[in-house]
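Bench log, entry 3. Co-assembly request; chain sequences pasted below exactly as received.
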Amino acid sequence: MNNNTTALPSFFEDSGSDRKGILSWLLTTDHKRIGLMYLYMVLGMFIVGVCLGLLIRLELIAPGKDIMEAQTYNAVFTLHGVIMIFIVVIPSIPAAIGNLVLPIQLGAEDVAFPRLNLFSWWLYLIGTVLALFSLFTGGGAPDTGWTFYVPFSEFTTTNVNVAVLAVFILGFSSILTGINFITTIHRLRAPGITWTKMPLFAWSLYATGWIQVLATPVLGITVLLIFVERVLGVGLFDPNKGGDPILYQHLFWIYSHPAVYIMILPAMGVVSEIIPVFARKSIFGYKAIAVSSLMIAFAGSLVWAHHMFTSGMSDTAVLIFSLLTFIVAIPSAIKVFNWVATLYKGSIIIEPPLVYALGFIFLFSIGGLTGLVLGSAGTDVHVHDTYFVVSHFHYVIFGGTGFGLFAALHFWLPKFYGRMYNKRVANWAFGILFVGFNTLYLPLFVIGLEGMPRRYYDYLPQYQTGHLISTIGSWILAVGLLIMFVNLYRGITRGKKIGRNPWGGATLEWQVPSPPPLLNFDKEPDTSGKPYSYKGVERDE
Amino acid sequence: MSEHNGHVLSVKLLTYILAVLLLLTFITVAATRVDFGYFKVVVALALATTKSLFVILFFMHLKYENRFIKFIVFMCFLILAIFIGMTFLDVAYR
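Structure output for the full assembly:
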């Protein structure tokens, strides 16, 4: 084991300022500290979101009222969606893991705009607090669903005003992070890190950054329009005043469909980093994966209206958006093909990061392929707004981004804490998570196909078996999450100390000490090698 | 790159641009009194785009930036145009 022989203190010990204690974190401009602050908040709110999800599942265990009233149920699923989408999933990998890893992978000391980075985190904090504030003030927790669809969101007496303001502020945080990462990638790459030698995680963040910058303002404007409608009653979306409620859906999904790619692209980047390291083989089709990230970002921005096939849109638009939706499947499939091809004939080492990454590929593939059922206008008519959509969405976002985040945590947390978790427990946690996940969400495909509508508080007895199995699955999943998080926590606090390169990676973050010093590098980074060439690279446990 | 290139526009040119923008604002208001029928949105968007182009090119100095920055801004506008165009694809055929 290589104990860190560097004389430089780690970023935990050296904040780069005279401030001590909590202020040295809250006012830091160090990308690693900001990344960890994002991570702590994301994981904290993830636990809240999971608890709300468990409550939803418990309420649905049997028809009729079980543990809560219908109005409470509406508020709980709204909150579950808002927290999970805007506060957990969107910033999870881009802002938290991206902040930790991106500058080091590029050979930079920090992001391009460190103060703007801190400002982004503060906006994220304020947005999160406001979202929670909306629960306990005004007319009670919002009950619109995370989509805030008009006309209901215009007229409901619950506290939608504060909730949309929270989303507005969270959106700004996301935009600023996107600007920061794009600029960092353009301007701060170390000599030798050319575009075709840049790690694929950085490529995925680059594509994500553009979506954040171009699509998020549309959401900001849209939720602001709801606020204007509620306060001033202008009638933008009210047919009685010449408005158009479908226009709201267009504006909402112009952001919210590309947002799915804000969520999934960085997770794909994580998988692209992990697979070659544990296959001990250069990534298959580097350029194809890099370009497919940009293709997904571009094509994914043109397909939003497949969420609206049954909303009264014109048939011409339905036809065109359905066609475009199928095009997005191509770059996604290119990635999956390249990951599998990388594994083919590799010297595969089964370690927890790889196990979680493989979980991602399996679950995301199911999520992606069921997306084609929804993208095809003919079949979508039958399953629109049913539990089929709920299941598809969770396979993509939880099975995809969630497992991508878990893979990233198992891959990079040892680097930033300098300690290793218990690998055996991590593998067991994955097994339980995987079983729980599929027990929870697979039955929802079935009852969705049978016609069970989403968001309903009550249901016909014929759907009870599916709901019961799904609820049992939610408990198994919760146990898996608990074991995984406890194991990671024990690992970073009491785990075995590690050297610079515990996995034998070839990207620059594996050249720096674990944990890294304040400005990342204790010596000039060696950028002569390729990011996925493992010749001469040894594991340093 | 163009950072800190110190390009300063003359007061005369800035005044001309201001005058053009005021004129376009006047035309925008006047255009609301004419019924363009199906093309009213096109006219409104064309006027708004022209005004924003003047602001971006001169007040925000895009005219004096390098090709890469111009390309990036062009792409942003292109995507915005696609967003708006495809939304109206629905409205036009509904």
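Chain A has one domain: 23-510. The CA atoms of residues 123 and 530 of chain A lie 37 Å apart.
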